Amino acid sequence: MLEEKQKLFATQTYKRAKACHRGLGALTAIAFTAVCGLAAVPANAASTKFQSVDTAMEQGISAYVGGYYEIAIPALEYAAKENNFFAQYYLARLYGNNASAHTDHSRAYLLYQKIANDYTDIDPEDRRHAPYVADSLVKLARYMRDGLEPIGLAANPKRAADYLHHAAVFFSSEDAQFELSKMRIIGDGVPTDVKLGLHLLAKLSRRGHPGAQAFLADLYWRGRNVKQDQVQALALISVAVKNALPEDRVWIEDIYQNIYCGAPTGVREQVSGMVAEWDSRFGRKPRAEERHRSGLGLLDAQPVRTCSNGEALPMLNKTEIAKEAPSIEARRKKTPDVMRGGADSGFSMRGVGAEDVGGDPLER
Question: Residue 87 class from Cβ within 10 Å (0-12 exposed, 13-18 middle, 19+ buried)?
């Protein structure tokens, strides 16, 4: 009887969490639970003897989405041992989360490796699985690039680039393209090609990839490989920080904090008249599948950030941006050429397009 009640609880929680999650933006796990009307997970749910893999998956994902990792782990472990694809994936995500009390990168790596071995050749049009396989390849590549001492995995940037190239070309993964663009700029695992790396970053930034926008903003702020431009740097990072996925928020907010706190008043004033227009063209909210993959458990409230003088950082949202610029069209023509794809910015976008490098740059 208890088993049946727990099964019913898990099923209902999973369905409500999934439905509510699609309609919500960034909330803490506590706020998510309150808004979606989810009851707390029973204390003895972790000891449930699962009747089926589906039952375990329902409980595991509902607990994962709510941030109840101690409940999610036994359920996902049970389903993963039965070779359930999504159990393996979400378990890897859970173990790979540095903000969790259950971080275990060795287990995460092995799970991603199994997914890569079993599903690398899956049909890229299979939208149910392909985005998750691509994400697994990107995560696996990061472990391969840096190495993993606990299991004796030596750093192998070349092998990491191979994983990323497959994800970028076969699965059209923007995250893989982003990682490759960075590697091309520094020549890590691939031949150094700063021009191509910058082209890819700008291309992804125009598509609204927050990571590419943040990385490119940092380059502009520091004047590395491009002409220093503090205005572009602050405008780009202001767009990126709003739409960053939970797993990337810390490093993107680090860049935002460094740029905003260091920006003179004049730069901030110039940017305040640009952000609304840039957000309308180059911003994007994370796709539903991206938000779900990240899990709401990763959205726990972060400490309030301040500059060294105690000034609080304004983390821009849609409402604040709307107040900043009443006339977007009046400024549209002032958008810097790097974001339009023009030639008069810190680096020329001409001469580095696909037609100039012998086809798709990722195929080089």
Answer: buried
8 A C-beta contact, residue 239 and residue 280: no
Angle of CA points 219, 220, 226, to nearest 5°: 80
291 vs 142: CA distance, rounded Å:
20
Tens-digit pLDDT profile for residues 313-334: 886 444 444 444 433 333 334 4
Residue recorded with tokens 């928020």: 249
Q: What is the 3 state secondary structure string of 208-246?
A: CCHHHHHHHHHHHHHCCCCCCCHHHHHHHHHHHHHHCCH
- Those residues whose C-beta lies under 8 Å from the C-beta of residue 351, and which sit 6 or more positions away, are 195
Question: What number is the average pLDDT over the span 33-47?
Answer: 41
**Number of C-beta neighbours around residue 101 at 10 A:** 7
Asked if residue 56 has pLDDT above 70, the reply is: yes
Residue 76: which pLDDT band, with cuts at 50, 70 and 90?
A: very high
If pLDDT is split at 50, 70 and 90, which confidence band does 67 have?
Answer: confident
Count CA atoms closer than 13 A to 190's CA, side-chain side.
23
The residues near 55 (Cβ < 8 Å, ≥ 6 apart) are: 7, 10, 11
CA dist 87 → 46, 166, 201 (Å): 16, 23, 33
Token pair belonging to 258: 């460094």
Q: What is the DSSP letter of 285?
A: P
